[in-house]
Amino acid sequence: MARTLSQYHCQSCGAVTAKWSGKCDACGEWNTLSEERVEATPGKKRKAGGRAIELVLLAKSEQTSPARRLVTGLEEFDRVTGGGLVAGSAILIGGDPGIGKSTLLLQLVCKLAAAGRKAAYITGEESADQVRMRAQRLGVMDSTATLATATNAVDIAETVRSTPDLDLLVIDSIQTMYVPNLESAPGTVSQVRAAAHELIRAAKTSDAAIVFVGHVTKDGAIAGPRVLEHMVDCVLYFEGDRSHHFRILRGVKNRFGATDEIGVFEMSEQGLQQVPNPSELFLGERQHNVAGTAVFAGLEGTRPLLVEIEALVAPSSLASPRRNVVGWDSGRLAMLTAVLEARCGVPLSGRDIFLNVAGGLRIAEPAADLAVAAALVSSVSAKPLPARAVFFGEVALSAELRQVPQAETRLKEAAKLGFEQGFMPKFSKKVMPPSGISTTQPDNLSDFIELLSGRY
Ligand code: TYD
Ligand code: MG
User: Which of 101, 175, 267 to mutate to test the pocket of ligand 1 (most atoms within 8 A of CB)?
Assistant: First the structure.
């Protein structure tokens, strides 16, 4: 009989140790080591030598064809994956519980089935009836997509191999899958890794694309080992503020395309609806003439996106005033407040600052600096910013305004939505604004504040 031995696997980074300890030596996380029993391989049975492999030339005489892609028809999804699912590739989608991962993937499977493709949805989390109930809600009860409730990865892999022409397999979720000859529980590092490996191999041999749902930990990373992210070709996050109905699909890794595109959806009573015009949605609830709000003309991938930034600067009773930020980087806010204070004399120290990106969107672009600065200055001076104006530009530590990419795309989107003025940095190449919108290009942040005739 095979001997088993205990190992301790870090559930955060996947490191393996022979002894338990409270803290993982590899990643420094506490309480992440859990015992897993593995079969001991007797040393003498291991083969000593290897077999020579054939090395081939990188340059091939005939043209290599580009990856075969399956366009799903769900445009927002296709945009994020870089133009559809690549045959034989593996995709991991992470997101908070209840954000809509299962809904999105069920819609995807049904969409493909409706286009005559073979798509299967395997769930280890819900019963077939629960999935049917969701399908009913989505209005896709008559779909030809196939369904199974299973958690044994070896069985699923066998099913994939014996189902010819399968185009897409969805596994909801990888944390519920297990490989029977491993003793550890489903969801542990070794099970997640082994099950994913088994399933990806099966999908690759039969050229089906495979999509895994991955749970996330409370700090937002995909639960289980980082190795899972290394094993797949594409990692997407489905995110959004649960109190809002907007959902954003964001790429963080993509072996076959760019990762800066986002897909925007709206959660409705009949599932996720695609949002081809996100700016209209994000500005929908905007109130005009309120001090402390500015419209940022942003860019997500190739798509312009207008969002509202709200700031509130209030006297603080605390020794170290609050800096609450939702949807933006707090380090960036600290830098910007320092610049406003030290270079432009805007009194911000000793005051609480609350900053919010409306609609639950998260902005990573430095181009948002100018819009945030405008919102802060407007809140301090209690004066609304010019109506129908958008702002974009990066602020340097010297308070100079730095140029950002694609000014014309941003202005075009703003003009389309009825904005008449764009505040932005000076550009080395002349920017031709579309008709209906004028541009104001101050040199630095102090000039900008003066232009707003800020009194504070
Ligand atoms: P779900 O896809 O189960 O989330 P996840 O798999 O990420 O945990 O989505 C669950 C939420 O979405 C749930 O709170 C109900 C809501 N929902 C709708 O608002 N409309 C719908 O049509 C559906 C199917 C779900
Ligand atoms: Mg789910």
Answer: 267
Residue 229: its H or E element: helix 227-231
Minimum-distance ligand to the CA of 100?
A: 1
Task: State how far the alpha carbon of 22 is from the alpha carbons of 19, 32, 315, 392, in Å.
Answer: 10, 8, 43, 47
Parallel, antiparallel, or unpaired for β 33-39 and 4-10?
antiparallel
Q: pTM for the full model?
A: 0.80
Best CATH choice for the domain 70-276 from the list 3.30.530.20, 3.40.50.300, 3.40.50.11060, 3.30.230.10: 3.40.50.300
Q: What are the residue ranges spanned by the domains of the chain?
A: 3-40, 70-276, 281-452
Q: Which residues line ligand 1 (CB under 6 A)?
A: 95, 97-103, 134, 137-138, 267, 269-271
CATH architecture, domain 281-452: 2-Layer Sandwich (3.30)
Indicate if the pLDDT at residue 221 is higher than 80: no
Residue nearest to atom 1 of ligand 1 (CA): 100
Give the CA radius of gyration of the chain. Answer: 26
Give, to the nearest 10 degrees, the angle between helix 101-114 and helix 128-138: 70
pLDDT tens digits, one per residue of 389-443: 999 999 999 999 999 999 999 999 999 889 999 999 999 988 899 999 999 999 9
Closest CA to 254 of 80, 398, 412: 80
Helices 189-205, 153-161: axis angle to 10 degrees equals 0
pLDDT, tens digit (0-9, with 9 covering 90-100), for 295-325? 999 998 888 999 999 999 999 999 899 999 9
Which residues neighbour ligand 2 (ion) by CB within 5 Å?
102
Q: Give me the helices (H) in 83-187, please.
A: 101-114, 128-138, 153-161
CA distances from 167 to 79, 83, 154, 204, 205 (A): 19, 15, 19, 11, 12
Q: State whether residue 429 is helix, strand or coil.
A: coil
- On the 0-12 / 13-18 / 19+ scale of CB atoms within 10 A, 373 is buried
Angle between helices 369-381 and 330-344 (to 10 degrees): 60
